[in-house]
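Lab meeting, item 3. Inverse folding demo.
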């Protein structure tokens, strides 16, 4: 009953001077809103990286060509071939799939429309290794590759870029470098992987790309999928062993190829995003502390203004604990109301950032609870000194106060 009465008195005191109470709460409102918004941005960035990792495949390694260096200067560049891919597929027990790839940017023509897109020459198991799904039509097969057929599978956004749709483009003809290709399939949407968007790529059989488009039998990269349960590092060691032998690299000599671990790259990005989130939340937390100092300042003024009231309450039997509780509750109510308003403002800011700026934001339950609890803690911490000062007033001196 005492707590209910104390809460009612606190609300009456706040409502008696709403403008001052609003200014007092402003620091808490801004602080909580900033914390919610910043954490939502950081969490959204981490979630975006998780989605990129899922899209790219954390168990996929990319093998690329690297320069040979002599005295710090690149002398020549080694080559990757289909023989390297065949050796990996044949000899490694740690891999579930090996995909040689050629990636070039060419002009693609459809009717009177021209696009500059990435054209990937690869093998039929590309979709399985990279986790793609065919939305319409089919993927080219081993027979298409062996016979160097001029067939093409397009990314999900290509039909729209050509003012058509997935169903209508199947069976139509595209021209790549003035060579006609029949469209046999359309990929399902994959989404951007951060530095490139596979939905605006097109795929043709590897041997078609080598002998009809690029004019050489080299490959630019080889993607491999690590078998489930096998450590990425173990697979990398095995790949290095096989390719060094295929390339005739003597012990002590540098590799003429590089192995790129996508998961390691994305893990580094995620760690950076987490640090950035904590940094933003910390900066926003400073405004909460400033708001708390404002609360303490106003509460000290309130104690001075209500000194005579405190004297009367003590004269009527109120204990130090009653006075202490009254001012602590008043301080916490100010902070909790400000926290509620700041929560609404922060969630609204996160929504508008996602809706109009295109940023990915996530308002989590944990961030809401933490910000709200922190605002209550601010009210308690910065309300202790004014509340103790009020509780320790001498009733006679308080009654004499003008």
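The presenter then showed the designed sequence:
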């Amino acid at each position: 009953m005492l707590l209910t009465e104390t809460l009612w008195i606190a609300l009456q005191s706040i409502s008696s001077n709403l403008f001052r109470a609003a200014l007092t709460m402003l620091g808490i409102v801004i602080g909580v809103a900033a914390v919610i918004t910043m954490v939502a941005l950081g969490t959204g960035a981490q979630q975006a990286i998780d989605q990129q990792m899922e899209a790219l495949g954390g168990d996929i390694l990319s093998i690329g060509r690297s320069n040979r260096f002599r005295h710090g200067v690149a002398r020549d560049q080694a080559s990757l071939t289909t023989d390297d891919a065949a050796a990996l597929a044949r000899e490694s027990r740690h891999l579930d799939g090996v995909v040689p790839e050629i990636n070039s940017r060419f002009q693609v023509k459809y009717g009177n429309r021209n696009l500059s897109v990435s054209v990937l020459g690869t093998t039929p198991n590309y979709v399985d290794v990279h986790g793609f799904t065919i939305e319409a039509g089919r993927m080219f097969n081993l027979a298409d590759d062996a016979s160097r057929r001029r067939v093409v599978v397009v990314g999900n956004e290509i039909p729209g870029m050509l003012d058509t749709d997935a169903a209508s483009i199947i069976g139509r003809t595209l021209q790549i470098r003035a060579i006609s290709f029949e469209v046999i399939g359309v990929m399902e949407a994959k989404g951007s992987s951060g530095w490139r968007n596979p939905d605006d790529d097109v795929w043709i059989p590897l041997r078609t790309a080598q002998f009809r488009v690029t004019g050489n039998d080299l490959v630019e990269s080889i993607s491999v999928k690590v078998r489930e349960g096998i450590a990425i590092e173990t697979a990398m060691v095995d790949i290095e062993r096989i390719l060094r032998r295929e390339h005739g690299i003597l012990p002590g000599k540098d590799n003429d190829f590089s192995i790129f671990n996508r998961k390691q790259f994305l893990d580094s990005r995620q760690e950076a995003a987490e640090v950035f989130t904590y940094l933003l939340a910390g900066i926003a937390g400073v405004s909460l502390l400033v708001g708390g100092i404002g609360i303490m300042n106003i509460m000290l003024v309130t104690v001075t203004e209500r000194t005579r009231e405190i004297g009367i309450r003590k004269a009527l039997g109120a204990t130090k604990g009653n006075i202490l509780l009254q001012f602590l509750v008043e301080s916490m109510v100010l902070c909790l109301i400000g926290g509620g308003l700041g929560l609404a403002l922060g969630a609204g800011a996160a929504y508008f950032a996602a809706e109009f700026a295109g940023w990915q934001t996530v308002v989590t339950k944990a961030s809401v609870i933490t910000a709200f609890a922190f605002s209550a803690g601010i009210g308690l911490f910065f309300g202790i000194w004014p509340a103790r000062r009020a509780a320790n007033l001498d009733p006679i001196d308080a009654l004499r106060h003008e």
